[in-house]
Amino acid sequence: MKERIYTFILRLKGITIKQEYTEIAQIKNTADLEKFQEKYFKRLLFHVYRNVPYYQKIFHDIGIIEDDEVNLSKFQEIPILTKKILREHLKDLTSLDYDKRNWQYNFSGGSTGEPTKFIQDRCYNNWCTATNKYFFQNFHDMEEMKTKKILLWGSPRDLFEGSTSLNDRIGNWLSHTIFLNGFKMTEKDMESYVKTINAFKPDLIRGYASALYELSRFVERKNLKLYEPRMLVSSAETLNKEMREKIESIFRTKLYDFYGSRETASIAGECTEGLMHVFSFNNYVELVDRNGGPVSEGEDGRVIVTNLHNYSMPFLRYEIGDMAVLGPKTCTCGHFLPTLEKIHGRVEEQFITKDGNVVIGDYFVHLISVVLNKGFIRKFQVIQEDYDTIKILAVPDKGLPQSDMNEIEQKIKLQMGSDCRVVWEFVDDLPSVKSGKFLYTKSLVKR
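The structure assignment produced for this chain is given below.
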């Protein structure tokens, strides 16, 4: 009954995925996939040429569309889209017909590049939802919507306001979901999370890699009993070998990684053989070297993504800011989707309080991204110099109001302790690390 009510509510909101999921399910091999991509690439590029001012001159100069025909061989000549370009050309990158679509703003998390806002529409959301369903059902034989699940996720709103909205609570109940705030990882919080998991007995637990890792370390440290779910899914952060081994040993459950971004949603998911399969019916992914050329199997490359279904603000050849290793063309699991061997992903470091509690780096990224998106600063880096000293390096733009600085400091002290000293330093620029990524958070405190 819950599923029927939930499906009905989604239908009222215009979120229906039957058609999208049916199309995905009909793709049975590489040839089918290529035919699907050609269809949606042509549809998207025609739309972009007619409706997105930023690309009109670019398409004309490249000659990607001539006599109402799309020349897909010219696709790689489209310049790579960066977050800097998004911020500077937001209006020209917005489709002229966006107001005719059901759309909303979203914001990047900022962990691999400068956060910014962008538009996503109902078509985009439907394909994202259908892709997630495909991952769970076709790779892991699980109907995710009907499954009892716990999300160990991040929500600054819940942290500061103290509770979720009535609509969110009803939605969580109907979708068999309990939400645990991954931004609050004190020992008291984690003790409560363990009790919730043991009482609810979820089949699925999804969460930030670092949040799952810290919860596992807490359970081990306190020698607690923990319910064994059917499946664990990690996402939003880079999952290293140490973290995977610890999480799997404590939960006694296989952990699968999931790769996505706020800008383009679901990108790839891990199969039973340990490779990440790219959801090429939702996002077209390229791995390129420093010169923009394609990499070979086993080589590192910059992740370039083209979402095939967001018509309100199309992302063509968008550089997320991550690095990944190209996987083999075929996987021993037998699935036809292309693979990634490893995702280096977002670079974040965790901060530690005097009491030994861990605050994940994404907490600070979310806090300061708010003022960045207002245009007050262009770039930032948060450094934990000591247990009670946090330094914020910021590249000013319009200038940061004192009221916003005070609010950020208060929220940092909420997690790091009332005695924590927050030091602001305004600089001309902030360098990236050798890999080309930028570290938004960095802790100098050793465990």
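Interim note for the steering committee: The first strand starts at residue 65 and ends at 66. The domain at 351-443 is CATH 3.30.300 (GMP Synthetase; Chain A, domain 3).
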